[in-house]
Amino acid sequence: MKIDTVAIIGSGAMGSGIAQVCAMAGFTTLLFDKNAAAVERSRKSLNDIFSMLESKNKITATERSNYLDKLSWNESLSAISGVQLVIEAIVENAEIKREIFSEIEAIVDATCIICSNTSSLSITGLAATCTEPGRFAGLHFFNPAPLMKLVEIIPALQTDPAVIETLKVFVQQLGKTGVIARDSPGFIVNRLARSYYSESLRIYEEHQATTEQIDQIMKDKGGFKMGPFELMDLIGHDINFSVTNSVFTSFFFDPRYKPSHSQKQLVEAGWLGRKAGRGFYRYPRPADAGPVEYNQELGEQVFDRIISMLVNEAVDAVYLGVCSESDADLAMQLGANYPKGLIAWGREIGFARIQANILRLREAYHEDRYRPSKGLEELNDKL
Ligand code: NAI
């Protein structure tokens, strides 16, 4: 099916960003929001962004006017009747999403594809609220959508395979890289990234290393652009804690995804990170803090523990059919800016060593949290 007209429902941070991407890729793009102020904010923000891009010579005046011609902002949902694809990016609430899907289905053609940009709700559950669940899928963009290259394409149990093929082409036309994720908690990126935060929080809570040391070790030894605590402060503890909670709950309280009390307390205190002026660190951070010291042994212990949990999670996701090895690696590099894909990293370190590290943690803690994936053995045999 050929797509040339797209409707974006919800003109907040994600909706506006996705609309910008669609318009710049040449799609006629209709934005709808039930809140008139949000519509105006989005119109102003996209006008400002295109002017800024023009003033920096990133786009020409003609391109700017072409992109704006492709966009329209609507306060009435009936405007979207002729579109071939709807991308919903409204508030993260299943009941409110269900209501809008039934309104959308009453307006669009029978062949129109309907997608949700949800980060945490079950795609299969959302599809089930539609009259025609076969046309429904997840299309998960990353924030900020115009800059982040990755889009997770998530078939619901009910999705017609032809819909996924159309979405793969559409994502490519947007200039993005699409990966296929099985409908499961956190999809790929939000699931695989959990250990970066949760294992770091455990090490910190056990007073084995300071936040500064853990951050420095992961940057020095792993080449991560940001340490886990700096990154959590940037994302915001409200958002990061809520994603962890949602993944933990959706996995029926599997201890591997258990949230942290120290992060919960930051949320309670309103120390949400950079945006609040305080999280694990105070902001602005002093520029002359000097190098963070740690000894070689601590550096290795911390890095081995965090990277082993990350690789184990990625291997388990592949083992359980959440994604392919190559999509697992693409997703973390493009959706979370990791310096390497986790499967490739595991291959470099050795899957047997990752397994031994996890078994050592299991012996030390006697917790089900530390379970080597069965997939580690399989990948090790293939080496
Ligand atoms: P936001 O709060 O910035 O925007 C949501 C917009 O939806 C608001 O403008 C609101 O007026 C509008 N809205 C609410 N109910 C509506 C309805 N019934 N009909 C029409 N418009 C309605 O939220 P944000 O951050 O853009 O998130 C939107 C969706 O994208 C959520 O499902 C979220 O989980 C998902 N998402 C968010 C990411 C992020 O980093 N913010 C990343 C990836 C996905």
What does this structure look like?
The chain is α/β, with parallel strands linked by helices and 383 residues long. It has 2 domains: 5-180, Rossmann fold (3-Layer(aba) Sandwich), CATH 3.40.50.720; 190-382, N-(1-d-carboxylethyl)-l-norvaline Dehydrogenase, domain 2 (Orthogonal Bundle). It contains 17 helices and 8 strands. The protein has helices spanning 13-24, 36-55, 61-70, 94-107, 123-127, 161-173, 189-192, 194-205, 211-222, 228-235, 237-250, 261-269, 296-319, 325-335, 342-349, 351-365, 374-382; strands at residues 5-9, 28-32, 71-74, 85-88, 113-116, 136-141, 150-155, 177-180. An 8-stranded mixed beta sheet has the order 3-2-1-4-5-6-7-8, with helices on both faces. Helix 1 (13-24) links the parallel strand 1 (5-9) and strand 2 (28-32). The protein is globular. Bound molecules: 1,4-dihydronicotinamide adenine dinucleotide.
